[in-house]
Specification:
There is one protein chain. The chain has 396 residues and is α/β, with parallel strands linked by helices. It folds into 2 domains: 163 residues, VC0802-like; 209 residues, HUPs (Rossmann fold), CATH 3.40.50.620. Helices cover 38% and strands 21% of the residues. β10, α5 and β11 form a beta-alpha-beta unit. It is elongated and about 85 Å long.
């Protein structure tokens, strides 16, 4: 028997005429994901993907990386035998003796009509075999032991456990977007959700160094090392913002400062997004969570962007977002203390229902073009590679 990892697709199976393209992108992603890990090859076969293992292949490490991979519904460490009932019985006999159990079931799927028995007949045949070997009872619901049997073409795959993948669509199949990354809890989750829909996400982080410490930038690097597990690398632009904030403080009414900051951030992020050929901007806004995230204020800030602004968290409450952050592995980093770019200049009573004409009047006192170009000229671009943890990230 050969040992393989058997991958089942998620939404790819619904793509019909475009399915081959989506499979190819997932195949390329998995190949890159495992490029530094010993294995005997990756291939597509009968609507599935196979990773062929070598004796020295680190199965736990491969499993860790596949858990969060988008486009994968689930996968299993399987044994491959010829699609022959005697070979299958022999493999099932070995699996059944691996550990004691009081109840079991066989879950067979016949993917080819050439096999002489249908799925129900296979279940019954192998079930009798396991009962004779172990004396265990057949239990179709809540059984202690499940042997999965998949017949696909000339091969049969047997395994005991399905491991969840990341779901969604393969990385890079949905175009590029640029996310405004604060280093807090929300924006990493927003970026993750866009990644899960196949988007390649680039990032912009606004900071106030040297007026604050480097902690916010370091937090973002650590968060992006987690998010890079899902798309292999993250490009980020670090943009100094304190001088622009100071100018807004000098000329604009205090209640409107945060909205003006956000309008400038969107202008700058859009300019960087266009350089990366992004088709949209992404923020971690959740409706009503803070003063700048009321419907009125979101409308005012979005007005400066020609690109669409996507807000994947707009209908989520804080607890839902926190649970998501824990699942993807960013929460513990996000809650570390730091000084973000707005802390120094936040007004006590920000406007919660701003009007566009009101904000544009306050903004007319500023040299918008000069301030935007000044920030763009000072932006620094980095590429962050994945940091794989000993414990795999969860998937949503």
């Amino acid at each position: 028997m050969k040992k393989v990892i058997l991958i089942h697709y998620h939404e790819i199976s619904l793509k019909r005429n475009n399915r081959n393209w989506f499979e190819s992108r997932l195949h390329r992603h998995v190949r890159a994901l495992l490029s530094d890990i010993p294995h005997a090859g990756i291939e597509r076969s009968s609507g599935r993907m196979l990773i062929r293992l070598q004796p020295q292949s680190p199965v736990a490490q491969i499993t860790e990386r596949l858990r969060g991979t988008f486009g994968i519904a689930n996968f299993a460490v399987a044994r491959e035998v010829p699609a022959d009932i005697q070979a299958i019985r022999s493999a099932v006999s070995e699996l059944a003796m691996e550990r004691p159990f009081g109840s079991f079931r066989i879950s067979a799927r016949r993917g080819t009509k050439n096999f002489p028995m249908n799925s129900q007949q296979i279940n019954e045949d192998l079930g009798r075999l396991v009962q004779d070997l172990t004396g265990a009872a057949v239990r179709l619901e809540a059984s202690e032991f499940v042997i999965h049997v998949e017949i696909a073409g000339a091969s049969c795959y047997l395994y005991l456990e399905k491991i969840p993948g990341g779901g969604g669509l393969p990385a890079g199949t949905g175009g590029s977007v640029t996310c405004l990354m604060s280093g807090g809890i929300d924006s990493p989750v927003a970026a993750y959700r866009m990644m899960r829909r196949g988007c390649r996400v680039h990032f912009v982080h606004f900071h106030s160094f040297p007026h604050t410490t480097l902690e916010s930038q370091e937090k973002v690097r650590r968060i992006l090392a987690v998010l890079a597990r899902y798309q292999l690398r993250c490009k980020v632009h670090f943009v100094p913002f304190a001088d622009l904030q100071r100018e807004i403080v000098a000329y604009a009414p205090p209640p409107l400062r945060i909205l003006l900051y956000r309008r400038f951030m969107l202008r700058i992020a859009e300019a960087l997004a266009l350089k990366e050929k992004s088709l949209g901007l992404v923020t971690g806004d959740s409706l009503g969570q803070v003063a700048s995230q009321t419907l009125e204020n979101l409308r005012v800030t979005s007005a400066v962007a020609a690109l669409p602004v996507f807000r994947p968290l707009i209908g989520s409450d804080k607890e839902e977002i926190v649970q998501s952050a824990r699942a993807i592995g960013t929460y513990e980093i996000s809650i570390l203390p730091d000084e973000d770019c707005c802390t120094m200049f936040v007004p006590k009573h920000p406007e919660i229902m701003a009007r566009t004409d009101q904000v544009e009047k306050a903004e007319s006192a500023l040299d918008v073009t000069r301030l935007v170009h000044s920030c763009l000229d000072a932006a620094v671009k980095e590429t962050i590679r994945p940091g794989f943890a000993s414990a795999p990230p969860g998937s949503l």
